From TrEMBL:
Protein's organism: Psychrobacillus insolitus
Cell division among keywords: no
A biological process term (GO) from this entry: bile acid metabolic process
GO molecular-function term, one example from the UniProt record: oxidoreductase activity
Name of the protein described by the UniProt record: NAD(P)-dependent dehydrogenase (Short-subunit alcohol dehydrogenase family)
Length: 249
């Protein structure tokens, strides 16, 4: 198992990619702190992990709140004694045409997607320094690499995640803290399935990728696991697309 003895915090883990990451990390031996604004959802996930012989706790978490982040880390240390891995998975996207996006839309998107990521890293890094190292994986988006129609605030916020990942990788590499980013493409999740698998739109999404199928949350989780684990011990500051070849075009 690749994460035996590791303690991981995974945000936005109530469904989709975050949920898949929580289950996979637990199967790989990690003690998992599962956080989400939807506490009822993560209670179910944590119960399933623990029933299967893993170790996990659930914490309600608004990633835009520094106080909530401090609470998450306090409870992580109380339960498991340390922090080795942070996965900044929580995020939102507002599907509005560029010219219709308001300052409020921008502020809300940035508060969760980039401010939440930054707060998580700022408070995690001192804990990882105590362990003489750690791994942070930030979830960006292919929109940060290629642009995406109809999602200006989202694209900008994920571009900021891309940049802050590289900055932190350079700043804290000598502390043996690795910071990498993953760029999901067209991934089918409970939230996206009704749209992506709709016969009216599915062929359009398939036309964008080089592989024959849309992506699965579990495929993103596998990439995150690799970067979080010691298998990636000499990798930091990279951009890893999980996009079926969208960015290869």
């Amino acid at each position: 198992m690749r994460l035996t003895g590791k303690v991981a915090v995974i945000t936005g883990a109530g469904s989709g990619m975050g949920e898949a990451e929580a289950f996979l990390f637990a199967r790989e031996g990690a003690k998992v702190v599962v956080t989400d604004i939807n506490f009822e959802a993560i209670e179910v996930i944590v119960a399933q992990i623990n029933e299967a012989g893993g170790e996990a706790i659930a914490i309600k978490h608004n990633v835009a709140s520094k106080e909530d982040w401090q609470n998450v880390y306090n409870k992580t240390i109380e339960a498991f004694g340390k922090l080795d891995i942070l996965v900044n998975n929580a995020g939102i996207s507002l599907a509005k045409p560029f010219m219709e996006q308001t300052e409020e839309d921008w502020a809300r998107t940035y508060a969760i997607n980039i401010n939440g990521t930054m707060l998580g890293m700022q408070l995690a890094i001192p804990l990882m320094e105590k362990n003489e190292g750690g791994s942070i994986v930030n979830i960006s988006s292919i929109s940060a690499l290629t642009g995406m129609a109809g999602a200006g605030a989202y694209t900008a916020s994920k571009g900021a995640v891309r940049s802050i990942t590289k900055a932190a990788a350079v700043d804290y590499g000598k502390k043996n803290i690795r910071v990498n980013s993953v760029y999901p493409g067209y991934i089918v999740t409970p939230m996206s399935a009704s749209h992506m698998e709709n016969p009216q739109y599915k062929n359009h999404f398939l036309s964008q990728i080089a592989l024959p199928n849309l992506g699965k949350a579990e495929e993103v989780a596998a990439a995150v696991l690799f970067l979080a684990s010691d298998d990636a011990s000499h990798i930091t500051g990279i951009e890893l697309p999980v996009d079926g070849g969208v960015t290869a075009k």
